[in-house]
Structures
1.
Amino acid sequence: MPHVTVKHFPATLTPERAAALSNALTSAVTDAFGCPDTVVSIALQPVPAEAWDEQVYQPEIASNDSLLKQPRY
């Protein structure tokens, strides 16, 4: 607890960029939830652009009242 999944268009992250992203997300999560970093897990899930609407936008964004941030696209 907690687990964060980042869904994104396919992109190659260098090990340094992946580590920076992991560190930033871990810091934000531990600050928000007051938990140790040892209990945070993070996954990256690439989603092809042509599948974004069906796999991500419609089921997870379109009618989700619990989003902390709405996209503007």
Note: DSSP finds two helices and two strands in the chain.
2.
Amino acid sequence: MTLWPRTLLARSVLLITLLLVVAHLAWLQIFLVSEREPRAQQIAQLIESVVNLTRTALVTAQPEKRIDLLRDLSQLEGIQIYLAETGEQVEPLPDRPTLQLAAAILRERLGPDTRFTLNRDGIEGTWVSFKIEDDGYWIMLPGSRIEEADPLLWIGWGAVVLLLALAGAYAAVATINRPLRALTRAAAQMGQGRLPPPVEMGGPLEISTLANAFNQMAADIKRLDDERALLLAGVSHDLRSPLARIRLGVEMLQESGDGTLKADMVRDIEDIDAAISQFLDFARLADTEAAVGDGDLNALVRSIVERYRHAGENVTMQLASLPALALRPVAVQRLLTNLVDNALRHSQTAVEVRTAADGDVAVIEVLDHGPGIPLEDADRMLQPFTRLEGARTGPGTGLGLAIVDRIARMHGGSIQLLRREGGGLRARVELPLHGA
């Protein structure tokens, strides 16, 4: 068991409390030290003035009027004069720095034989000795004349200020802690498999940024779950038809040795294999490879284009000078392959691949002269298992462009499906020049 609190709110308030207490104690000590000398000077000046005035009055007064003078001083000013006894002992001053300093100042100003006490013969007051010629006297002032500042008063005011500061600190920390508690509740809901509502992005900038990142993460997880569910549904749908044809073909093949039928079955099997590869590509994108900081985009484009040329395809390239990029090479090769395959499949004409630098992004464009994609369907075609009506009867899974979009977003980029001047499709991928 530990006394250190576990919650952020309690820890923050405790630390602020300790800091404020130490600060107030230091402030009180500074005040007492800085107030000590001026207060001692004030006490010494007051006593010196009273002693000098009383001595002068006694010396200059007529002998018959001294009794009246002493009576007036006692009644009007509370000042009493007593004869000093030879060899009498008085109680020493309390060990209070201000009084000790005042006594030292009085001895310096009134003489080294001057004595200063707060109690003589059991009578409390401010007692100071002085001499007129060879006669010794005591003068007693009311104790209220030299009252020191009560430290308890300042401690009380300091405690009030401390409580107000702690209340403000608690309110400030609670304001910061409130969105953190909301994030904790939302994270617990996600751990239970439920999608929480978006966390309110309030409070300081750091907390707001954290809430925004959490909301984005929750949205990404939901999209990922939706895509996986859609993937499972697509697998059963897209593989059922070729499997049904193969089953029918096998049954018919037993009755006929038709070579055309066998070729159709081979094509169906190849379609199944291609569909499975696309499914696996799409599913494995969650386990991404590590990015390299000095990726050569032009080299990747060149290797892909050369591969198609060796296979007899009409694919050309136009490359611009690009700096090194933060890339995942295998993922980028898959992106390029899917775009070129898509262009060749739908256009069956020459395909051109271009690279360029546009502001702070690197651009990859794959252009063809096919039928293109209607503008209203461009965004929809980036969703998994989405195909145009005219392409539904041909081979393919509708995952190619979805994989391209996902790889682009993995790199902090994006893809656009645009019309090409003169007809055809222009697939434009933008990747940040400074790695995301």
Note: The chain has a mean pLDDT of 76.
3.
Amino acid sequence: MRREDQAIFRPGGGASQLAYLVLDEVHTYAGALGTEVACLVRRLRGHVERYGDTLTCVGASATVGDDQQAAALDFASRLFAVEFEFDALVQESYAPR
């Protein structure tokens, strides 16, 4: 991390303001890109947690089908290095016309 950026992770420097990390189209973070992003997420979480804060990771994707729920949770757990339970999965449901 660059020295000029380290201040945002120190107490009073803004770390407490960093509470959520949201990755949209999370299904695209596979392969080499996914590996790089996973490493960056781990480093970011480490910096935030160093000062007692918690980073909540959210992955959004509109392409996960009902038959892919277990795979989606496994993928998110590996990407964010956090174990996700089934109730962490939020799905859309259509209302009748």
Note: The radius of gyration is 16 Å.
4.
Amino acid sequence: MDKKPVLVVDDEKNIRLTFSETMTQMGFDTRTASNGEEALTKMQGAEFDLVLLDLRMPGMDGIEVLRRIRERCPKVRVIMITAHGQSSRPSRP
């Protein structure tokens, strides 16, 4: 049984390349996208086992991309990633 590719979506080139190279070395067929729009376009033409999806990107953010992925491909696994250390939740007093 052939595995479907993994899609790495991140606007930061170095992060995208690091994940892509690591996944490739682990034996995964890996594709990349630099933004949400590109990711959704690539998902129209191929099926993916897994999407590594950046939370914060300019334009369409990761939450919106996730929503659209769920509408089109509800069974694909998605792991949200971020390089930002701050939570979006307000801090407690």
Note: The mean pLDDT is 88.
